[in-house]
Amino acid sequence: MPSFRLKLPAVRWPWQGRWDRWWQARHPASDTTALTQRNLYIVPSRPGFAFCATLLVLLLASINDQLSLGYLLTFLLGGAGLASMHSTHANLRGLKLDLKTPPPAYAGQPLALDIRLHNAGTARFGVGLRLPGGAAADTATADVPAQGHAQLHLQLSFPTRGRHALPRLRIESHFPFGLFVVWSYWRPAAQAWVYPAPEVDAPPAAAVEEGLPQGQGQPGLGDDPGLRPYRQGDSPRQILWKKSALALAQPASPGGTSGAPLLVRERLGSRASEQWLDLSATRGLPFEQRLSRLAAWVRRAEEAGLPYGLKLRDVSIAPDLGPDHFRACMEALALIQE
């Protein structure tokens, strides 16, 4: 017998819009944040609630039996608790945090967040940072010296490729006695690039080769077919310093300009070895697996130093090499829609 599930519309109360505006005003999205009286919150912890219950029992017993020493002990412990609350709140108040732009990661693999803490006051102890809802064991903690700085590192992962907004972070502290917990929320504005996970043991690239005939060098570089001008992203080890110096020493041609470019030797052939990595070459596979295979081919060609281009339906990236080219290709793979 078929079953039917009734999907009710989400209920939004009239006051929720005002609450959202209040929350966003106190915690705006930014890669830097300052902890102030305005955005810090403090409540008793579990041991703190037990401490308050103990104080209440002591107070009732002292009132019932008219014990002067009981009053003294109760108010002494109560004063110590209030001093602890003030110290806990002051341990975070005045701190500033900033987030370094996170490096890209592959789907399902850890993404590292690098956070710097800046302290303009006295030393701070036990400053913790974690994802909301995460276990206490996953909290990264650090002590920040007076007039100094500290670093915290968090790891998170995204199961799917794309450009993702970072989740909000929770900054907290239980210092000094653990009777109270003070916390604040931070909404980073940075976004994380998550590339398709490269296929393990991918077959050789099915590329469409385009380029010059074998053995033909690039114009203007002499008879050596393995030379080309320096491009941004090339390793300094590839530069032929002697040949570049000789080219610079040659007099300029009439009507030409002096100052020849630095010469670089291709690591695996010349432009004849340029290849196009085409999405159509992966037909017959599920769409995400096709992207994983292309990601493996892109990474393999980059590591081998073999110029490569990428064709994704209406997107075409000309053959090249280097970190900028690799990033452009992987970002295109991350954003393409099925």
| Shape by Cα distribution | elongated
Largest beta-sheet characterization: 5 strands, antiparallel
Got a strand count? 18
List segments where confidence is low: pLDDT < 50 over at least 5 consecutive residues.
207-223
Helix content: 25-40%
How much of the residues is beta strand, in percent?
A: 25-35%
First and last CA, distance: 35 Å
Order of strands across the main sheet:
2-11-10-6-7
| Class of secondary structure makeup | alpha+beta
Number of helices: 6
Roughly how many Å is the radius of gyration?
31 Å
Query: What is the H/E string?
Result: HEEHHEEEEEEEEEEEEHEEHEEH
Mean pLDDT comes to 82
Overview of the molecule:
With 338 residues, this protein is α+β, with helices and mostly antiparallel strands. The protein has a five-stranded antiparallel beta sheet. A four-stranded antiparallel beta sheet has the order 1-3-5-8, with no helix packed on it. Strands 13-16-17-18 form a four-stranded mixed beta sheet, covered by helices on one side. The two termini are 35 Å apart. It is built from six helices and 18 strands. The longest helix has 25 residues.
